[in-house]
C-alpha cells in the first residue's frame, strides 16, 4: 500500500523544538524532491523547506538557521528538525514528494492533494 504520512507535531512553548517526519511506504524517496509546506488559518500555503535527490536543500528565509531538513533513506523518511520555535511557526505542516522518475506527485501541498496524501501534522507554538 502506498502512503505518505506526516507526524511529529504537537504543542510546544516558544523556544522549544520538534522533529517532524514524512514517511513513505510503497514508494521510495530516492530520486525525489521532498517538500515541507505549512498553512496557518487565514494564511496562504508556503513552502518551508525542501530536499532534492542530490541533497540540495532550501529553506524559507524566516526559518533559516532554525530548521534543518534531512533524509534517512533506510527509513524512507524525511525529517524537519525545528528549533527555536516561534508562535508564528504555528501551522499545519504537510509534505509532498516529486519523483524525478514519474509524472506523479505524492502527498499534498496544503489543500492541493496529490496521490496518497496524509492528514498533515499540527504544530502549535505558545508564547
User: What fraction of the residues are assigned to beta strands by DSSP?
Assistant: over 45%
**Radius of gyration, in angstroms, nearest whole number:** 14 Å
The residue ranges in which pLDDT falls below 50 over 5 or more consecutive positions are none
Secondary structure category = mainly beta
Report the biggest beta sheet as strand number plus sense, adding barrel if it closes: 8 strands, mixed
Keywords:
53% strand; mainly beta; globular; four-stranded antiparallel sheet; 127 residues; 12 strands; single chain
Task: Please summarize what this structure is.
By secondary structure, the chain is mainly β. It has strands spanning 3-7, 10-13, 18-25, 32-39, 46-51, 57-59, 67-72, 77-82, 91-99, 106-109, 112-113, 121-126.
Structure, described:
The protein is an all-beta fold and 127 residues long. Helix content is 0%, strand content 53%. It contains no helices and twelve strands. The chain has strands spanning 3-7, 10-13, 18-25, 32-39, 46-51, 57-59, 67-72, 77-82, 91-99, 106-109, 112-113, 121-126. The strands form two sheets. Strands 2, 4, 5, 6, 9, 10, 11 and 12 form an eight-stranded mixed β-sheet that branches. The chain is globular. The protein starts with a strand and ends with a strand.
Topology diagram in text:
Blueprint: E1 3-7, E2 10-13, E3 18-25, E4 32-39, E5 46-51, E6 57-59, E7 67-72, E8 77-82, E9 91-99, E10 106-109, E11 112-113, E12 121-126
Parallel strand pairs: 2-12
Antiparallel strand pairs: 1-3, 3-8, 4-5, 4-9, 5-6, 7-8, 9-10, 9-12, 10-11
Amino acid at each position: 500500500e502506498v502512503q505518505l504520512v506526516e507526524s511529529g507535531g504537537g504543542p510546544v512553548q516558544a523556544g522549544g523544538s520538534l522533529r517532524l517526519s514524512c514517511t513513505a511506504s510503497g514508494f521510495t524517496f530516492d530520486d525525489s524532491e521532498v517538500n515541507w509546506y505549512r498553512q496557518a488559518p487565514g494564511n496562504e500555503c508556503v513552502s518551508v523547506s525542501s530536499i532534492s535527490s542530490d541533497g540540495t536543500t532550501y529553506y524559507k528565509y524566516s526559518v533559516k538557521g532554525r530548521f534543518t531538513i534531512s533524509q534517512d533513506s533506510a527509513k524512507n523518511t524525511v525529517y524537519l528538525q525545528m528549533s527555536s520555535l516561534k508562535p508564528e511557526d504555528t501551522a499545519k505542516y504537510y509534505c509532498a514528494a516529486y519523483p524525478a522518475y514519474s509524472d506523479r506527485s505524492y502527498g499534498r501541498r496544503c489543500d492541493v492533494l496529490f496521490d496518497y496524501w496524509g492528514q498533515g501534522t499540527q504544530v502549535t507554538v505558545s508564547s
